[in-house]
Each structure stands twice: as C-alpha cells, then as structure tokens.
Amino acid sequence: MTLELVKGDFNAFFRVPFEVYPSDSPYVSPMRSDLKKYLDPKQNPMLKSGGALEFYVVKRDGRPVARATAHRHRQSNERHGWARTCFGYFDAADDADAIDLLFAAITDFARRHGDTEIVGPFNLTAMQMVGMVTEGFEHAPTTDMMWNPPWLPKHLERLGFAAEFPMMTWGFRPDEVDENRLLRGGARDILNSPDWTFAPITRRDFKVRMEEGRLCLNAGFDQNPMFVPLTAEEFQFQAGEMMWVMDPTLSAIIHHKGEPAGVVICIPDLNPFVRHAGARYGVRMIWSWLRGLFAPKRAVIILYSVRPEHHGKGVNAAMLHRVVEALKKGKYQYCGGTWIADVNGPSLSYVNRLGAERLHRTHLFRKAVA
Fold first, then answer.
1. 109-118, 177-186, 248-257 — which is least confidently predicted?
2. Are 266 and 251 in contact (CB under 8 A)?
3. In CATH, what is the architecture of 174-332?
4. Contact 338, 265 (CB under 8 A)
C-alpha cells in the first residue's frame, strides 16, 4: 500500500471527507464552489493582501484519505507579534501514517516561511470557522460550526500538539427561553426608548446594513484575542452571500440616535440543505429544495457585537431579546451559536441567561517548530 502527498489537487481535496467519514456522520462540507473560492489567491482577500497558502492531500493507493491547508495570515501575525503558520480544513481517516505525511508538509511550509509555531485549525482566519471539537462529537453542527471525528485531536496530541484556548458552541430552544431573564439593567429601557431603533438587514439595504455591521464588529471585537479588523472587501467576501439566505426578521443593526451601535447576525441553518445536496450546485440541490430542506426549522447566531461606547448599557441583551422573539414568531425549533472562548465572560453570561446548552467543546492545537 502506497502513500502519496499531492499539493494543489482541488478535486481530491474536496473529496476527502466524503471518502473517509461515514455517510451518517455529523460532518457537513462547505459548498464546493465556496471552498474553491476560499483557496483561490486571486479571490480571497487574505491571500491577495500578502497571505500565503498551500493545500495538500494524502492519497493511499490513489484514494484521498487526508487533507489540510498550511497558511499564513499576514495581518494577524503583524498585529499580534506572531511568527505563525496555521493549518485548516483538516480532515482525515484514522490513519497515522497519512496524517504524519500531511503534517510533515505543513511543518516544511512553516520552516520555509520562518515561522516558529503551527496553530489550528483555522478555516481560514479567526473570524471564520475555528477550533477542533474535543467533546460533544454526537451533536450535529449548525452553519459555521466545526465538526471532526474524535481521532483527529488524538493524532494531534500524538504529534506533539497541545490543546489551548478552550471554546464552546452552544444552542437553545426558543420556546423554552424566558425573555424576561434577558431584560436586566438597561435592556428594557432600550426597547422602550425612541433613541434606540432596530434596522433589519434586508436584501434591499444589505450593503448599507452590512457595512454598519462591519464597523460595529471591528469596534466591539477590537480587544478580543486573535482579532484582526476586517476590511470592507474581506467582510463582503466572507458574508456577501448571506444576502440570499437572510431571514430579515432575525438579523438587525441597532441604532442609537441614528448611528449604528450594535449588530446581531442570525441566519437559518442551511446545513441540512447543504448536506442533502452533497455541497454542490446541481440536480441534488434542486431535489433538496423541492423536499423543503431550504425552509429550515433551525437557525444560528453567527455573531453579535456592540461598539465600546455602548458597553454596559444592555444593548446585547436587547438585541438577543429581539432575536428570541423573532425565532418564536418564525416557529424556529432550535437556534445554535458559533464559538465563544472561555475567556469571554460577558458573552458566556448571555448564553447562560438564554438557558443554552453546550454542544461542542473545542480547542486550538499548537506546536512549536524546532
């Protein structure tokens, strides 16, 4: 049986999870066209602005059994003083030799770029999908959540990687939420004040609202670990296609006296639809549409952020209260939430007030480069 490392074979890269994970596993692939776009140095702003990326596939007797990217986020390294190679889109069979060969290539990439550590997974930055699942493998991910089988973190530990930066994903059932628990402090005053207004994010004003959202995100997340402010091009690249899947009752910008003060982005969970369609546009997608999988009963909160000058006023609580009300009116049965770090006490307190359950425990894995 022979092993072969191949660089830049996109078709094989896309196929790996379908080859090595059982058909009933919770894994959901990104859309094939989206994945191709993320890896394209002519389209991805991270790569156009000085980042570097290579992607690898390990084949065993011609069958793709392991994959990952090795990449550098230049702005992240410069902002935080790191010399870091990241790995991402790490999926593999429970095959030690194949994974060893894969990470030998990633280590070689790090050495060629003069980096002193390898950290991941990042798909592809800290403002996209982050972390490896270490507990909660039985839970299905919603849109923008990672999922991996339990053998992958074990292989990373075998290779000398250490788990760090603990995080969690979470979820709740809207009908079980006591909205009054969210209305502490000034949140109730905000909802009753003419100075505070919500502007839904609709297709008609999508670009204007999303630019306001970007500004609120950059301001509110500025002191968060690993954060790098997003340019307008980056935000559009990552979030532009949300316009076609938005439920305008869920996402909004909150304004204070006409100026954007906070953003909450909550979208329908498209994972059942993407999964049934095989993560490709085509006949299966049409069939998925006809089966009603594009009318989901699940949603996911992608992010919420408040500008620093409005911290401590109850703005986050007011935004989440609005989301919960909209989920109930829309008859959504479940709502997930993307990763929150253990160090983010304020966000965790809101999760607790929602009565949310932890879905996945996730970590980054880091190793020094000798």
1. 177-186
2. yes
3. 3-Layer(aba) Sandwich (3.40)
4. no
pLDDT band for 151, please (50, 70, 90 cuts): very high
- Which of 90-104, 110-124, 133-147, 172-186 bottoms out in mean pLDDT, i.e. has the lowest? 172-186
pLDDT of residue 274: 86
- The dihedrals phi and psi of 337, each to the nearest 5 degrees, come to -140, 135
Q: Is the pLDDT of residue 293 over 70?
A: no
CATH code, residues 3-167: 3.40.630
d(CA 226, CA 235): 17
Q: Are strands 129-130 and 122-123 parallel, antiparallel or unpaired?
A: antiparallel
Residue type, 250: L
Question: Are 143 and 334 a contacting pair, CB within 8 Å?
Answer: no
Q: Are 29 and 17 in contact (CB under 8 A)?
A: yes
